[in-house]
Amino acid sequence: MADGFSPEERKAAWWATDSRRAVSGHFVDVILEKTGKKAIDDLSDIEAVQMGLVMQPVIGKLFEEATGIKVRDLDIAGTYDKEPWLRAHGDFETEDGGLLEVKNFNAAVINKYPDMDADGNALPLPDLVQCVHEAVVFNKPHVYFAVLFGGQAFRYWRLDVTDDMKQDFVQQAAKWWAMAVSGTMPDPESPEQARAIFPVGYEGSITANAQIESVYNALKTIKERIKDLEEKEAEGLTYLQSYMGDKTTLVNVQGEILATWKNAKSSKKFDAKALQSDMPDLYDRYSKEAAGSRRFLLK
After folding, report:
1. Which pLDDT value is given to residue 1?
2. Nearest alpha-carbon partner for 145 in 163, 136, 130, 157
3. What H or E segment, with its residue span, contains residue 160?
4. Beta strand pairing status for 99-105 and 142-149?
5. How large is the angle between the packed helices 125-138 and 163-182, nearest 10 degrees?
6. pTM over 0.85, yes/no
C-alpha cells in the first residue's frame, strides 16, 4: 500500500479515504473491500499516487509561504477517542491548532474548485467530508485544504469544523461502519457495482412488479434508440472517412481542424493461440480457469 498500511489494517477501521470514496460514488467498492469480497487496490506502483507523496512537502512549504502559518509533519494514523473504529491519516498539523490536508491534482479539475477566498464549505463534497473526518479524529477546530493544480496553480481554503458538523459526521460514519461490519450491501449505483454485489447467478426466476416492468420498457426503448443512433453514427463516419481517403486531417475553410484519422503507434500483441499450438504443455501450465461474469440481456 502506498500509505504503509496493510490491507488488514485498512479493513479493520473506517478511514478518511473511505469517507471520501463513500461520497464519491464508490461506497459499494468500499464495503466490498471491508468485507473481503474485493481486493484492496495496491497503489504503490501508481505514478500519480507516488508523485502526490513526493509533492506533499512542497505543497506544505507553499502553504507556509502563502499564509505565514508554520506546519509540521503529521504523518501518523490517528484514532478517534470515542470510537476506535474511526481513524485517519494526517498530512500536517498547523501552528494555529489546525490541520493541513494537501493534494496534488491535475490542472484539468481546477474549474471544479471555487476561488481561493471562498468559504471552505464550497469545497467539493469528497474534500469537505475528508477534512471533517480528519478534524474529528484529531480533535481539531479547523482544517486547511491546499491543492497544487498541474504543478502551476496553488490554492488553499480554511474549513472551520463546528461541533454540530462533527456530530453529524460521526453519526453518518457510524452507519457506514455498521454496514461494513454486518456486510450489509448498499444499493448499487452502476451496472459494474451490481455485478460486483451479485457476481454469481443461480437458476431461478423472479416476477416483475409494475415498477420493474415500467423500467424494463423504458430501457428497451432507450436501447432501440441507441441502436438507431449507432447506425446513423456509422453512416456519418463512413461518409467522412470516404471523403478524407488517405488524408489524416479534415479542416474547414478557415483551416480549423474538424477531425483527424491517423494511424496508431504500432505495438506488440501476445499471440496466445500460437503458443497453445506450438507449446501446448507450457500453455496449459500457465493457464488457469476464470469464473465467467454475468451477462445481462433484454428479451
Report:
1. 39
2. 157
3. strand 153-160
4. parallel
5. 100
6. no
